[in-house]
Amino acid sequence: MPAPRSKTRVRTHPLGDAALLAELGTRLDTALNTRAIALAAALKKRRDVRQAIAGYASVTVHFDPDQTTYDALTAAIKRLASKRPPMAEPGRLHRIPVVYDGPDMEAVAATLGLPPGKIAAIHARPIYRVFLVGFVPGWAYLGPLPEELELPRRHVPRTKVPAGSVAIAGRQSGIYPLSTPGGWHLIGRTSVKLFLPDLDPPCLFRAGDRVKFFAVS
Amino acid sequence: MRDVLGVVKPGLFTTIQDLGRPNAIASGVPPSGAMDRFALRAANLLVGNEEGAAALECTLSGPQLVALHSCLVAIAGADFDPHINGEPAPMWTGIFLSAGDELTFVGRRSGARAYVAVAGAVAGDRWLGSVSTYMLAERGGMHGRLLAARDVVAVAAESSAPAVSGRRLDENLRPDYADHKLRAIAGPHMKRLDAAGRQTLFGSVFRLSRDADRMGYRLEGTGLDASGDELLSFGLVPGAIQVPRSGQPILLMADHQTAGGYPVVATVGSASMPVAAQLLPGDEVRFAEVSIEGALRMRAAQRVALDSLKS
């Protein structure tokens, strides 16, 4: 009996002459992200692939153009993506203590019409998924954030956000691993270090991990 | 380890770079490495190193170095008017320095980044598989920082290849850094540009803003409209041309953010990145569309040029 074929359509686009983007979809969706992580893992085993980095619903593939071509790799990706995805193993669970006293807490509370304590409780309610690690070292895109806390990014990004700031924007949450510019709303802070430069890999979270926040004072 | 060069003056922004650390991208660590990989490779081959060995990347001005022992060096990339003991020194050529010889750079004549390779490979802190300096994390190279006066540049090993001076890269095999037309391949979100936008991207002149560093270059010019649905963040590559809402494109370079959600309308081909690496704020730059095959032909031509240095 042939293996059941999945309905996932994959579309590839060149990213220069030695990389491509394989898109599995355009929605923020845990199942798509699971497939992207699995596809990246399968691609990394190929000799002609140098790197395969999962995005929310895509894989960025760095390949060796001396060993393969964009078209040959696209065909291989379509074959891989049509296979039934492996059973998703639950990622490691991280428990992250948060002091919910961020500099934007008052403004967020005013905009959403909720008291700060309620915002903290809603933020700490779900188990978030690490959809993607990237942007700056150790940054993880966490989601989905409960709808009650959905806000657009700040109009004017901060030029400097302190490391450890716990932030929200859209349907996402994140923790600034380093002191960098940033446009998300800062609702709290944590003492947990996300960027661990002396370890390999140098960050606490990996794509597919789960994160639970809990309030401390 | 052997100390070979003393740093008298470090130059404006001099770091140790090799071909970078691609294995850490999934942790959000940029690939880093030399901005002009052709010049890095050529300089290394000219002194008998592996082409991906670490070397000095000197930005906008060169350092003042004194040889502590005899050593073989080569300078490639931007022309900062190198001199040895006050006499003009050739670029793209293996040169012997004797103990006490002084290597100086009189001033920038063209380009943005010069590379100084030393036989035996420049030694530095290795971080996640690479000696490249990544200053945001304060890791790699010279303790994660710029070279400073009184630093000592050491070589990792005695060169395995016989040190032969006078090896030279033929002039017509060097990149044409004066041609600021970067060949770019249409990217995932090219369709977001209308016909006029596409013409602007591939027909108009952009200028590097002051916001141009190892992370990337913000460009100024006729605005591009690549608006549409918000994109989910995805993995980025050096050479990607992002179009944020402002419409002023960003060209990603070696220390780029590893993921982002701005549309990528095109990506500069790998053979044009050495030219991109030699641009500086105020420089004009154009993009010309190229097919993947065309970009690979340019890449192959550079490979032939580099292979001519292997003996």
SSE layout and pairings?
The complex is a heterodimer of chains A (217) and B (311).
Chain A: E1 11-14, E2 19-23, H1 30-44, E3 49-54, E4 58-63, H2 70-82, E5 93-98, H3 105-112, H4 116-123, E6 128-133, E7 140-143, E8 158-161, E9 165-169, E10 172-175, E11 180-182, E12 185-189, E13 210-215
Parallel strand pairs in A: 5-13
Antiparallel strand pairs in A: 1-2, 2-4, 3-4, 6-7, 6-13, 8-11, 9-10, 9-12
Chain B: E1 2-9, E2 13-17, H1 37-46, E3 55-59, E4 64-67, E5 71-79, E6 82-84, E7 87-88, E8 94-97, E9 102-105, E10 110-118, E11 152-155, E12 181-186, H2 195-203, E13 206-212, E14 216-220, E15 234-235, E16 240-242, E17 250-252, E18 259-260, E19 264-268, H3 273-277, E20 284-289, H4 292-307
Parallel strand pairs in B: 12-20
Antiparallel strand pairs in B: 1-4, 1-11, 2-3, 3-10, 4-9, 5-8, 5-10, 6-7, 6-9, 12-19, 13-14, 13-20, 14-17, 15-18, 16-17, 16-19
Terminal CA distance of chain B reads: 25 Å
Strand arrangement in the largest pleated sheet of chain B: 12-19-16-17-14-13-20
Across the major sheet of chain A, the strand order is: 1-2-4-3
Work out the radius of gyration of chain A: 19 Å
CATH architectural name of the largest domain in chain A = Beta Barrel
- Tell me about the largest β-sheet of chain A: 4 strands, antiparallel
- Please, what is the oligomeric state? heterodimer
Q: What general outline of chain B do the C-alpha atoms trace? A: globular
CATH class of the largest domain in chain A: Mainly Beta
Low-confidence stretches of chain B: none
Helix content of chain A: 10-25%
The structural domain count of chain B equals 2
| SSE arrangement of chain B, N to C | EEHEEEEEEEEEEHEEEEEEEHEH
Order of helix and strand elements from N to C terminus of chain A: EEHEEHEHHEEEEEEEE
Count the DSSP helices of chain A: 4
pLDDT averaged over residues of chain A: 92
- Rounded mean pLDDT of chain B is 96
